[in-house]
Amino acid sequence: MRIEVDPRGDFAAIHAQSIPQGAERLAGPVLPGMANVHSHAFQRAMAGLTEVRGSHDDDFWTWRELMYQFVARLTPEDAQAIARHLYIEMLTHGYTAVAEFHYVHNDRDGKPYADPAEMLLRHLAGAREAGIAITLLPVLYAASNFGGQPLQPRQQRFAGSLASVLTMIERARAAAGVSLDLRTGVAPHSLRAVDPVQMSELVAGVRSIDPTAPIHIHCAEQTKEVDDCVGWSGMRPVQWLLEHLPVDARWCVVHATHMTPEETRALAQSGAIAGLCPSTEANLGDGIFPLLGYRRAGGRYGIGGDSHVSRDPAEELRLLEYTQRLATRRRNLVAGARTDAVGTTLWLEAAEGGGAALGRAMGAIMPGRRADLVVLRADSADLAGRTGDAIANSLIFSGARGLVRDVMVGGKWLVRDTCHPLERQSDAQFRRVTARLLS
């Protein structure tokens, strides 16, 4: 195959049975780049710190208490260093784009920075240094629970208004210029954090800036959230969302772990992307997404790192399939119309759905899509003798690490022979920041 890339960084043409004609010969098997649909970058520095039982019933809500303590010390400089380090890690594992669900807006006293987009733009700077494509999603976080309950003191760093969030979007768009590898959208944090009037005004506001802007929201991640939503509205979260808001293909509903079969079919038929974060959902004990019923109904999905206890898309996809196997006591469940190979199906479906969730033309090696390539190590023992579907199956299910050799984003090589040029510098700065935060 001969792959042509145009000056914009898009795939221009794909020629089968072609001769090299002076083109670079890639060093191994090739997959389309993967999108990470859900990132809270600062939480990367917390990975591994919450694995000591604090009570007999540790869950998401006890984990959140530790997150509040950690975020209280974070500075803009810290946020940029952590984000750059994380984004480089993502690239070296095969992610080529990320959606940053950003909610730490204010200073450590809970007061706005002189530039309300200060922290958001730090993530843009980190992404530009790393070279990863990014969809910036400033979060509206206005209440501590359903019914508009006031934010707690430790949530003041997250506080924002409709006006401030829309200003952040405009600032990010201005800073990005004409870049094809930056998108902006918006993220109402959750139904518990944004009331119905604010939600409608936010959707209308971002649509006035960009009618195609992605909208991401946490929904139905924990059973307590479902119970509280029923108590507030008489409806379950996904049910309420679909009945009260114009949910369509521009939306990404993150987690959606706890749905009835009716909600599952309705979410699939809405065209929205389900943003699944298997490693974080397992780490927090959230539950298992009803993937099989969702796919049968035509639902699309992408994968995300969320709290970044994993930065490897192959691991996320392996966990996604394995949790379905544990729930059903059957094997090889996520197979598609194109192939019965589970690894190939998972990678291609998540890449396609993830690209749609980011509002970025990616996720397939075909003309008109961004030229994102993941080249695997042909010399790896785990890929020895593999051809066709056995390649992606081995990448995902052999449990091996270090199988990604080269990574291209938008026509530019960023990882070569497993290394990113800023990896050592970024690693050193990340270690200094983490040591200070934990001192």
What secondary-structure arrangement, pairings included, does this model have?
Blueprint: E1 2-5, E2 11-15, E3 30-32, E4 34-39, H1 60-71, H2 76-93, E5 95-102, H3 118-130, E6 133-140, H4 162-176, E7 182-184, E8 187-188, H5 196-209, E9 215-219, H6 223-233, H7 237-244, E10 251-255, H8 261-270, E11 273-276, H9 278-283, H10 291-296, E12 300-303, H11 313-328, H12 342-358, E13 373-376, H13 389-397, E14 404-409, E15 412-415, H14 423-438
Parallel strand pairs: 4-5, 5-6, 6-7, 6-8, 9-10, 10-11, 11-12
Antiparallel strand pairs: 1-2, 3-13, 13-14, 14-15
Helix pairs in contact: 2-3, 2-14, 4-5, 11-12, 12-13
Give your account of this protein's structure:
With 439 residues, this protein is of the alpha/beta class. It has a single domain, classed as TIM Barrel (Alpha-Beta Barrel). The protein is 39% helix and 16% strand. It has 14 helices and 15 strands. It has helices at 60-71, 76-93, 118-130, 162-176, 196-209, 223-233, 237-244, 261-270, 278-283, 291-296, 313-328, 342-358, 389-397, 423-438, and strands spanning 2-5, 11-15, 30-32, 34-39, 95-102, 133-140, 182-184, 187-188, 215-219, 251-255, 273-276, 300-303, 373-376, 404-409, 412-415. The strands form four sheets. Strands 4, 5, 6, 7 and 8 form a five-stranded parallel sheet that branches. A four-stranded antiparallel sheet has the order 3-13-14-15. Helix 8 (261-270) links the parallel strand 10 (251-255) and strand 11 (273-276). Helix 4 runs parallel beside helix 5, helix 11 packs across helix 12 (342-358) and helix 12 crosses helix 13 (389-397). The longest helix has 18 residues, at 76-93. The protein is globular and about 65 Å long. 50% of the residues are buried. The model has no long low-confidence stretch (mean pLDDT 96).
